Amino acid sequence: MVARRKVAVVGAALSDCGRVDDATPYALHAQAARRALADAGLDRTLVDGFASAGLGTLAPVEVAAYLGLRPTWVDSTSVGGSTWEVMAAHAADAIAAGHARAVLLVYGSTARADVRAGRRTGTLSFGTRGPLQFEVPYGHTLIAKYAMAARRHMIEYGTTIEQLAEVAVQARANAALNPEAMFRTPVTVDEVLAGPVIADPFTKLHCCVRSDGGAAVLLVAEEYVRDCRTSPVWVLGAGECVSHAAMSEWPDFTVSPAAVSGRLAFERAGVRPSEIDVAEIYDAFTYMTLVTLEDLGFCAKGEGGAFVEKGRLRVEGGELPVNTDGGGLSAQHPGMRGLFLLVEAVRQLRGECGERQVRRGDGTLPRLAVASGTGGWFCSSGTVVLGAG
Fold it and tell me: What are φ and ψ of residue 183, in 5° steps?
C-alpha cells in the first residue's frame, strides 16, 4: 500500500475586492491565481490540478484555458458557498493519493459591478425547475428560506432577534480592523434592528453585502513545501455533506449539514472543537453563523444565541474569534464565498493579518483553524480543519 502524502496550503490570496468596476470575472480569477502562486513562490508549471466553479459554460475548462493551464486533475464541483471547502477536501485526497502534486483553487465574480451596470439583476431565486417548482409560486426566495429557518430557531429555542443582531455587530467590529473590508464603521444592535426589513426577521444588516472579488488557494504535496517562501498550513481533516433540495425535505430547520461535515472533519483531524483558535464560517445571513457554531460543536444545540451575545466572536477579546476579516456581512461577498474563508484561515495561522491578527492567551499565534462553508439554503456543507506548520 502506498503511503499517503501530507498536504499543505502554501499559497493564499485575494484579487482586488469590494468595488471593482473595471475588471471581468476572468481577470479577477487570473489576478487571484497569480497572487497565490507568488505568495507560495512557486511557478505555475508545477500546477497539475485545477478546481473552479461558477464561471463559463465548461467550468473549469474555460478558466484553466484563460490561465494558460493544462491540468491532468480537475474538479468542477458546484454546491454553492461550500464548494471550496468540498473542493479543498477533494484536492487534498488527490494529492495525498499521488494523483496530483499541486492543485490551484480559484474563484472570481463581479456580482456587484454587474448589477450596477445592468448586466444582471439581484438573484432572488435559483430557478423554477425540479423540486424548486413546488416552492417558487409561494414567493419562497433564497432570503426567505433562511429567514424561515431563523424564525424556527427563535420559536424552538427562544433565540432573540437581538442575539442574531450581535452576529452582525461583531462581524463589523472585526471588519473595522481590516483595511480591505467594504464596511468598517461600527454598528450597534439597535442600528441593526432599525434597518429596513428584507425578510422577516432579517433587516438589511442581517444580510451579507454584495461585492466584487476573487480568491485563490494553492495546495501541494509535502515534498514541495521546502521550495515555498511561506510557512505551510497543513490540511488536517475535512468533511462534506448534502442534506436536502427543497425546504419541504429538510427534517429540521434548526440543524444544518455542518453537523455532519464538522463531525467528520474534526474526527479525521483528530482534534476537538474546543481546541480551535479561530473559525471562519459562511455568513450570508446572521443565522448561518449562529446555527453553524452549534452544529460544529462550539456550543450545544439551542445555545447559539447565548453564545454569540457575550462578544465571543470578536478578534479583540473574543473567546472564539469568528470571521476575523469581517465576513460576508461586512468584508466582501461576491457570491460563492467559501474560498475567502480558507484564505483568511491560512493568513491567520501564518500570522499575516496585522491589526486583526488573532493571538492565543499566551500571546502566541493560533495553531488550529476551521473553515466551514454552506451552500444553497443549508443544502450543503464543507468543513476543513487546518493546522499551522
Answer: -125, 120
Give the phi and the psi of residue 170 in degrees, each rounded to 5: -75, -35
- At residue 248, the pLDDT reads 86
**How many Å separate Cα 308 from the centre of its chain?**
19
Please name every residue paired with 60 in a beta bridge, in sequence order, or none if there are none. none
Low-confidence ranges of the chain (pLDDT < 50): 1
Closest residue by Cα to residue 334 from 10, 100, 112, 95: 112
| Separation of alpha carbons 106 and 36, rounded Å | 9
238 CB-near residues (< 8 Å, 6+ apart): 85, 88, 89, 92, 264, 265, 268, 382, 383, 384, 385
Element of type H or E holding 26 = helix 25-40
Give the C-alpha separation, 354 to 249, whole Å: 44
Residues 341, 374 contacting (CB under 8 angstroms): no
pLDDT tens digits, one per residue of 337-370: 999 999 999 999 999 999 999 999 999 999 999 9
The 10 Å CB-count burial string (b at 16+, else e) for 284-313 is bbbbbbbbbbbbbbbbebeebbbbbbeebb
Strands 233-242 and 380-388: antiparallel
C-alpha–C-alpha distance, residues 244 and 353, integer Å:
37
Q: Which amino acid is at 278?
A: V
Output the DSSP codes for 62-116.
Answer: HHHHHTT---SEEE----GGGHHHHHHHHHHHHHHTTS-SEEEEEEEE-HHHHHH
149 and 287 Cβ atoms separated by less than 8 Å: yes
CB 109 within 8 A of CB 214: yes
The chain-wide mean pLDDT, for the chain, equals 95
